[in-house]
Amino acid sequence: MSAQPADEASFPREEALLIACLLALTGGYLEAYTWIVHRVFANAQTANLVFLWVYVTSGDWKEADRFIFPLLAFMAGVILACWLRWFAPQQAARTSILIEIVCLFIVAILHNRLPEVAGTLGISLVAAFQTVSFPRVEGLAYNSVMATSNLRQTIEGLFAALAYVGNREAKPFHRPYVFGAMCAAFGAGAAIGAFVTEATRAYSLVIPVLLLVIVLLRCEQGGSDLKH
């Protein structure tokens, strides 16, 4: 086994901060893409639920239907990702990334013929796999496809580091740093996704695919390190 720094050896490679930032960047990018192109959210199912019931209560079933399918696709993705984690726990993270890459390729290919089906269902499936397969960064629970919980963790961590007298943690600002990085990466991804999608929709999914390929290579590198 090759030598690793103490802080990197204490958690699996898929929990590394760099990988989490790349996933958050991808999550923000895809959220901006689906909102600009389809006016639905692939990641933030809370918003889809709100819009669904707003249109249901107003009797606008045509608009309500647009938010049902992303929810169903996300639910299906969670079930499939949970099954994958149960069936092949050691390979779940890397297999999940491969599935995400394939799904985005399919979305890109079918987007011109079946834009609603390909965009909303395919990307919601990607978001579900990413959420289930990458739930932690450096041992801390986080979410790479939305920012609310990460923002809360950032603020709580800062409060704990600044307000608690006699804080004995060796690195009191580490937790807010990690979650702050997640928020920054997600925001940067949303900004880049919005800019690229408005500039060229035909090729806008190339960037998240490349980001996921980098994540896959990093995970594979971690797997090869453990074999030596």
Largest sheet: 2 strands, antiparallel
Helix fraction bin? over 70%
Number of domain modules:
1
Approximate strand percentage: under 5%
CATH class: Mainly Alpha
Form type: globular
Query: Which architecture does the CATH hierarchy give at level 2?
Result: Up-down Bundle
Class of secondary structure makeup: mainly alpha
Average pLDDT, rounded to a whole number, is: 84
Number of strands: 2
Radius of gyration: 19 Å
If strands are numbered along the chain, what order do they take across the biggest sheet? Answer: 1-2
User: Helix tally?
Assistant: 9
What is this entry, summarized?
The protein is an all-alpha fold. The protein has 9 helices and 2 strands.
Explain the overall architecture.
With about 230 residues, this protein is an all-alpha fold. The protein has a single domain, classed as Up-down Bundle (Growth Hormone, Chain: A). It has 9 helices and 2 strands. The protein has a two-stranded antiparallel ribbon with strand order 1-2. Helix 2 runs antiparallel to helix 9 and helix 4 runs parallel beside helix 6. It is globular, with a radius of gyration of 19 Å. About 40% of the residues are buried.
